[in-house]
Amino acid sequence: MSAAAASPDSQSNASPAKGTGPLAGVKVLELGTLIAGPFAARFLGEFGAEVIKIEDPKGGDPLRKWRKLYPEAGGTSLWWAVQARNKKSVTVNLKAEEGKEIVRRLAKEADIVIENFRPGLLEKLGLGYDVLSKDNPGLVMVRLSGYGQTGPYRDRPGFGAIAESMGGLRHITGYPDLPPPRIGISIGDSIAALHGVIGAMMALHHRNMNGGSGQIVDVALYEAVFNMMESVVPEYGVYGMVRERTGASLPGIVPSNTYPCRDGSIVIGGNSDPIFKRLMMAIDRADLANDPQLAHNDGRVPRTAEIDGAIAAWLSTRTINEALDVLNAADVPVGRIYSVADMFADPQFAARQMIQQFRWQAPGEKDGEGVDIALPSVTPKLSATPGDTRWLGPALGEHTDEVLQTLGYDADHIARLREQQIV
């Protein structure tokens, strides 16, 4: 599968460009599948790390067949184009001894290994940290799992949806009279992946700058979600308060809510003291703007219904665009609720180049064939060493020969490994 960006400095998948970002020279070995581990490795690859992704020769990462495919019949996931961008796909049968040896040799040269198997599986394969770090004491291993590498739940299967539930996110999401909904993306996996990246960067810094050795970064998906739960722990510890679902509002921070206009809804964050005053003046409620009881958030909380009612009444006769014009002019944080179609049409997304166009070809397609594909740009934006999309998600095993040759395998040896279904 090849990809070429529409910009003149784009790279072809057939000849991957070396990383030039801040992580150029960092070598990453990815042993994960689906979301958490691959997203962490993707992040590192976007900023210049060389990422070698190990896949099962029989089908590869299941994500290749998730959600919308191109071509629609028997094709590859469009998600794959972004989740596996900048990665080299190497097929290895981890059940074969020679396959394990390939992984051990790759790990010997790696700075970071990322895996998201169930705890204990790598050890059963003879690829645990104790083995891999013996020949590479500086190795950092990021281990992402549902419940972490220790504790009574470590052996349970744990996906992001379960982590969102156990970590507290689902309990506070939605309306009190309805069951907790799920967020429309795999947020638990993604939050865990970002924790893995942060942990890897701290471990590398310790190794490189403090004279430390390598180490394990143990990320439990539920703990990563739990880490985002703001004040729920001290509120319960001190007052026994259990935060509950409150719909679109944010209790204790007033006003912050979703409000209906004539033709849809907008989100307003008027919860800082000076912004609250500007908001009230903008909606012709000088009485509330100048009420000394409402000057600070703790005074506004008991009168939440009154404040929200005043905002709703003002919006009820206005369209979204009319409300945005007034509130933006008053320097009040406000925004429409975007669909992906809104993102494609928005000038801020365009100015920041947050959606980039590429050409993607499925295996077997000839030059000139394929499909134009839009991908999210790399973020965050670094001024001197920005990240980049050098190529899109590769075909299964596309880089096997190239990578094995760097380890000293000759063409005959690689052919034999392929015949024996080891690669």
TrEMBL record:
<dbReference type="InterPro" id="IPR023606">
    <property type="entry name" value="CoA-Trfase_III_dom_1_sf"/>
</dbReference>
<dbReference type="InterPro" id="IPR050483">
    <property type="entry name" value="CoA-transferase_III_domain"/>
</dbReference>
<dbReference type="GO" id="GO:0016740">
    <property type="term" value="F:transferase activity"/>
</dbReference>
<dbReference type="InterPro" id="IPR044855">
    <property type="entry name" value="CoA-Trfase_III_dom3_sf"/>
</dbReference>
<keyword id="KW-0808">Transferase</keyword>
<dbReference type="InterPro" id="IPR003673">
    <property type="entry name" value="CoA-Trfase_fam_III"/>
</dbReference>
<protein>
    <submittedName>
        <fullName>Succinyl-CoA--L-malate CoA-transferase beta subunit</fullName>
        <ecNumber>2.8.3.22</ecNumber>
    </submittedName>
</protein>
<dbReference type="Pfam" id="PF02515">
    <property type="entry name" value="CoA_transf_3"/>
</dbReference>
